[in-house]
């Protein structure tokens, strides 16, 4: 194929979705290589870190989702408009990752109602209440009406909006105490070009 | 609370100063505990670039008070002309790009970032064992070494060893000059070897990177004058 860019990932949104969105928003064609588990077992040893997603540019591989997102964002103009803005994008993304690692056990948990309730009380709510006040503060100090950082779309906007849409599907009302965040997520998901992608992308549970 | 309001004053002072004298160099103050930890890479970036900075090592007992004025309740915090910036890797990347130690091309920069995030993932997995090794947690050191320490080490340092080799055995992990990932790895190795001698002997290419870092004149100078702490 003559395409410069290839994104290799599983057939889910997960840690690949933001890259796909960046390509689509930039109008840059790419091979959206969604591989199966058996394909992965033979590919794994040929990747830099034995993990996905992997970005291939002119045949050269890059791993680690945030490194990929930041690289594409810089190429396509979604990384912040100054070094300080780029820093606040990075800060927000790293803070978000720390939160996501904490809340993960409560997401998509298949167990008894009692266990779900315990996870909500002991894991999900504390993780939320530690992080979302910080996110609101970042948005208030460094963001704007439609963006967490700066005045134009950045990769961290996409990262958070994607997570929020999964979160609110599973736990409706979960972010009601964070109206600033909800408003920004809403604005991001309403961006025309992104809306186009959300409508045409393959439908997966997560 | 007094400390928070004082930093507001400094911030506005610097805003005015920048307006009057736009060519003045930014002022830097890095606040962290009196250890290497997550601040050391940034300290070394200042040393490498000959950039003056205030190396604010906070005594443990002052932390609860200072914490109230931090953006996210954590350290390190870098103050640039009075503006407070959190998150150690965001800080390191910001300084490295400013001073020329982030990688020479966007692709190299991306690889440095990727190795940095891989290091973070490794460290999260490695720390439970490592805390036992340096005595801040209890556990069966020998058992944990076999079940956790060694496999986690081999996975990550195997990646680094291959990367260093693929990069031409130059003593740099990425590209042909020092980047902040070289600094992070070298510092971490020093801390590991201090508590677990010979634990990283099996990685000669990565050892070459470490030697390259600590023999770089400005780093050598810094290592000689910095306070020596166990981690």
UniProtKB/TrEMBL annotation, chain A:
Pfam family of the protein (one): GST_C_3
Location of the GST C-terminal domain: 82-206
Molecular function in Gene Ontology: glutathione transferase activity
Keywords tagged on the record: Transferase
Keyword Transferase among UniProt keywords: yes
Enzyme class: transferase
GST N-terminal domain boundaries: 3-80
One GO BP: glutathione metabolic process
Recorded catalytic activity of this chain's protein: RX + glutathione = an S-substituted glutathione + a halide anion + H(+)
E.C. number(s) listed in UniProt: 2.5.1.18
GO CC aspect terms: cytoplasm
InterPro entries: Glutathione-S-Trfase_C-like, Glutathione-S-Trfase_C_sf, Glutathione_S-Trfase, Glutathione_S-Trfase_N, GST_C, GST_superfamily, Thioredoxin-like_sf
Family statement: Belongs to the GST superfamily. Sigma family.
Name assigned to this protein: glutathione transferase
From TrEMBL, chain B:
Keyword Cytoplasm: no
Domain GST C-terminal as annotated: residue spans: 105-231
Classification of source organism: Eukaryota, Metazoa, Ecdysozoa, Nematoda, Chromadorea
Domain of life: Eukaryota
Stated family: Belongs to the GST superfamily. Sigma family.
PANTHER family reported in the protein's UniProt record: GLUTATHIONE S-TRANSFERASE, HEMATOPOIETIC PROSTAGLANDIN D SYNTHASE
Domain named GST N-terminal: residues: 26-103
Organism: Pristionchus entomophagus
Broadest EC class assigned to this enzyme: transferase
Record keywords, A-Z: Transferase
This enzyme's EC code(s): 2.5.1.18
Catalytic activity line of the entry: RX + glutathione = an S-substituted glutathione + a halide anion + H(+)
One GO-annotated biological process of the protein: glutathione metabolic process
Name of this chain's protein: glutathione transferase
């Amino acid at each position: 194929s003559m395409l410069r860019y290839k994104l290799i990932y599983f057939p889910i949104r997960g840690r690949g979705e933001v890259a796909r969105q960046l390509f689509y928003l930039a109008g840059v064609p790419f091979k959206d290589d969604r591989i199966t588990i058996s394909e992965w077992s033979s590919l794994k040893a040929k990747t830099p870190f034995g993990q996905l997603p992997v970005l291939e540019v002119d045949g050269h591989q890059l791993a680690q989702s945030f490194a990929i997102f930041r690289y594409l964002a810089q190429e396509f103009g979604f990384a912040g408009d100054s070094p300080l803005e780029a820093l606040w994008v990075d800060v927000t993304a790293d803070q978000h990752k720390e939160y996501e690692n904490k809340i993960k056990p409560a997401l998509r948990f298949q167990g008894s109602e009692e266990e779900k309730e315990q996870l909500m009380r002991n894991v999900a709510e504390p993780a939320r209440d530690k992080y979302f006040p910080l996110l609101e503060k970042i948005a208030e100090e460094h963001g704007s009406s439609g963006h967490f950082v700066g005045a134009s779309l950045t990769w961290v906007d996409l990262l958070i909006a994607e997570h929020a849409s999964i979160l609110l599907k599973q736990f409706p009302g979960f972010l009601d105490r964070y109206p600033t965040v909800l408003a920004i997520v809403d604005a991001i998901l309403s961006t025309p070009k992104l809306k186009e992608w959300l409508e045409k992308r393959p439908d997966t549970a997560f | 609370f007094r400390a928070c309001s004082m930093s507001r004053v400094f911030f506005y002072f610097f805003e005015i100063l920048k307006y009057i004298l736009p060519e003045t160099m930014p002022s830097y103050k890095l606040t962290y505990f009196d250890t290497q930890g997550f601040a050391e890479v940034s300290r070394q970036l200042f040393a490498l670039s000959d950039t003056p900075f205030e190396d604010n090592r906070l005594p443990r007992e002052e932390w609860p008070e200072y914490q109230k004025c931090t953006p996210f309740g954590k350290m390190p915090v870098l103050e640039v002309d009075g503006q407070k910036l959190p998150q150690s890797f965001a800080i390191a990347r910001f300084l490295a790009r400013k001073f020329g130690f982030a990688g020479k091309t966007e692709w190299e920069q991306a690889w440095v970032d990727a190795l940095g995030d891989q290091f973070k993932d490794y460290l999260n997995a490695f720390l439970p064992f490592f805390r036992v090794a340096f005595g801040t947690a209890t556990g069966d050191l020998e058992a944990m070494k076999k079940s956790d320490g060694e496999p986690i080490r081999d996975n990550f340092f195997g990646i680094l060893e291959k990367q260093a080799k693929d990069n031409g055995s130059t003593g740099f992990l990425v590209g042909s000059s020092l980047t902040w990932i070289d600094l992070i790895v070298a510092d971490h190795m020093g801390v590991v070897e201090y508590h677990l001698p010979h634990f990283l002997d099996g990685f000669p290419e990565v050892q070459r990177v470490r030697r390259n870092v600590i023999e770089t004149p400005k780093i050598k100078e810094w290592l000689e004058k910095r306070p020596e702490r166990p981690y």
